[in-house]
Amino acid sequence: MAESQFPLQVDQIKRLQDFPQSQAANIARYQTLRQRSNLTSEEQMELQQLSSILSTYILTAEDFNLMASAIESTQVHLKNNVDGYIQAKQEEFNNIVQTKEQEFNTTLNNFTVRGQYDPTVIYQKWNIVTYGYETYLSKHDNNIGNTPVGDASDAHWAKIAYRGKQGVPGLGLVFVGEYNNAMTYQPQNAVRYNNKIYYCIAPTNGNLPTDTNYWILFYDSQPIVVSSTPPENPNANPVWIDTSA
Fold this sequence. Notes:
The chain is of the alpha/beta class. It has helices at 24-35, 41-53, 61-109; strands spanning 113-116, 128-131, 134-138, 157-161, 174-178, 184-185, 189-193, 196-200, 204-205, 215-220, 224-227, 239-242. Among the domains are: 113-161, Seminal Fluid Protein  PDC-109 (Domain B); 174-242, Carbohydrate-binding module superfamily 5/12 (Seminal Fluid Protein  PDC-109 (Domain B), Ribbon). The protein is built from three helices and twelve strands; from the N terminus they run αααββββββββββββ. It starts with 23 loop residues before the first helix and ends with a strand.
C-alpha cells in the first residue's frame, strides 16, 4: 500500500489524461484481462505491459491509496501541528496586545495636568504643569526640582504652550461729565463737549477739548444719552451713559 511522505516531503500524485481513440483496443483488452479470475503467465505479462502503456490513463488502487494517505496525513498534520501552532500564536498575540494596551493606558494616564509647577513634587513623563503663565510637558519620570525652561538646553521639560504677546493696554477712561472750563483735568479723564466725547492726554485747565495738545476725540456722541435716567427713545439713542451713581 502506497503511503504518503507528507509532511517530510511533498507526495508526487499522478495526473491522469483522457485516453485517445488509438488506445481503445488496449483499454478494452486491459479491462478484459482485469475481469478474469485466472490468468496464464502469458496473460499476466500482457496485463503488466498494458498497465505500463496505459498508466497515464488509468487510476490504480495504489494510486488511489496514495491520494487517500496524503489526505489523511494532511489532516493529521493540520490537527496536531498547525491548529495547535495557530492557537499558541493567537494566545501569544493576545498577550502582546494586552501588554501593549496596559502600557498605552499607563502612558495615557500620565498625560495629566498637575497644575502649577511645584519644585517639591515628583513628576512623571508626560505630566503637564504650568509655570510663568506657560505650559510644560515632563520629558522623563522622577522629575523633581527642575524648574521648567522649555528651550533646547532643558533636558527635563518641553514647552508646549507659549504665553501670547502682551496686547496694547486699554485706555481706562473715566467719564467726568460735561466739559467745565474751570475744572482741571488729568489724562484719561473723558468729557462731553458739543455732543462729542473727548479724553484728556495731558493735564489741562481752560483748554477746550478741541485743542489737540490736550485732548483726543473719542466718539461723536450724537446718539449717546448722558443722564441719570434712561433715554426716552432707545432706538434713537442706543448708548446711555448712566450718571446716577
